[in-house]
Write a structure and sequence with these properties.
With about 250 residues, the chain is an alpha+beta fold. It has three domains: about 10-65, RNA-binding S4 domain (Structural Genomics Hypothetical 15.5 Kd Protein In mrcA-pckA Intergenic Region, Chain A, Roll); about 75-135 and about 230-245, 2-Layer Sandwich (Alpha-Beta Plaits), CATH 3.30.70.580; about 140-220, Alpha-Beta Plaits. It has seven helices and 17 strands. The protein has helices spanning about 15-20, 25-35, 95-100, 125-135, 155-160, 200-205, 235-245; strands at about 10-15, 40, 45, 50-55, 60, 65, 75-80, 105-110, 115-125, 140-150, 165, 170, 175-180, 185-190, 210-220, 220, 230-235. The strands form four sheets. Strands 7, 8, 9, 10, 13, 14, 15, 16 and 17 form a nine-stranded mixed beta sheet that branches. A four-stranded antiparallel beta sheet has the order 3-2-5-6. Strands 1-4 form a two-stranded antiparallel sheet. A hairpin with a 2-residue loop joins strand 11 and strand 12 (about 170). Helix 1 packs across helix 2 (about 25-35). The relative contact order is 0.14. Mean pLDDT is about 90; it is low at about 1-5. The structure holds uracil.
Length: about 250
């Protein structure tokens, strides 16, 4: 079935709404729906492909509303070594351990690799998460990258223009060389997509290897001096700025 989207209103299938909200994997979402534990606008719905309008429909699981809780928006400085999934079969630490004191049911906006550190937005607002992660909205994400070997201007230019990955060409990016030390180059890259391991794969495509990757900004919001492993609430102004980046 094709994804339906109006220009400004995200519409998704019910199983995807649950999994995007971080409530369950796609398979677990199917089970919850088939067990009759999910209601849409008060009525039990067992059709996993039922279209949901995130702005209008009220979805609840076990009578707990999914989309109408008090909304919360956090900025977490993810340390390297943590995964962004709720449960990790390999027992690695998860970002949920860092969020243990948050009383609302929250989930990370998109993913960062285990070895990537930096700015991770965390929320319970599925519509906000959709806006931030849907490549159509072109929300800029800036990373600080350390690579080996030292990159030539030509390699950086290839990244700037966009490279071909196995899931298609990347959009052009903004690149700024920061410094070179020994066999390494440090540069900043700003991309407007968020494909799986995108920066690492782009670096590999031009013959390098990423040694360090830190996300320093999303949609104009900077990580600044937040201590690693901690989080804070976004201010109303910061939230407004983020929303504005999705309306450009
Ligand atoms: N690009 C990557 O390669 N990894 C991340 O975690 C984020 C962007």
């Amino acid at each position: 079935m094709k994804k339906q989207t109006t220009e400004k209103r995200p519409i998704k299938t019910l199983d995807r709404v649950l999994s995007k909200a971080g409530l369950a994997s796609r398979t677990e979402a199917l089970r919850l729906i088939q067990q009759g534990r999910v209601r849409v606008n008060g009525t039990i719905v067992r059709d996993v492909e039922r279209w949901i309008d995130l702005e209008r429909d009220r979805v609840s699981v076990d009578d707990r509303p999914l989309l109408r809780q008090k909304r919360i928006y956090l900025l977490l400085y993810k340390p390297p070594g943590y995964v962004t999934t709720r449960v990790d079969p390999q027992g690695r630490p998860t970002v949920y351990e860092l969020l243990a004191e948050v009383r609302q049911w929250v989930f990370p906006v998109g993913r960062l690799d285990q070895d990537t550190s930096g700015l991770l937005l965390v929320t319970n607002d599925a519509q906000f998460a959709e806006r931030m992660t849907n490549p159509d909205y072109k929300v800029p994400k800036t990373y600080l990258v350390k690579v080996v070997p030292r990159f030539s201007d030509d390699q950086l230019e290839q990244l700037r223009q966009g490279v071909v990955l196995k899931d298609g060409p990347t959009r052009p990016s903004i690149i700024q060389r920061l410094r070179d030390t020994g066999n390494h180059t440090f540069f900043e890259i700003t991309i407007t997509e968020g494909r799986n391991r995108q920066v690492r794969r782009m670096v590999e495509a031009v013959g390098g290897k990423t040694l360090k990757l830190v996300r320093v900004a999303v949609g104009g919001l900077q990580i600044e001096r937040l201590p690693i492993g901690t989080y804070r609430e976004l201010t109303a102004e910061e939230l407004q700025v983020l929303w504005r980046t999705t309306k450009a």
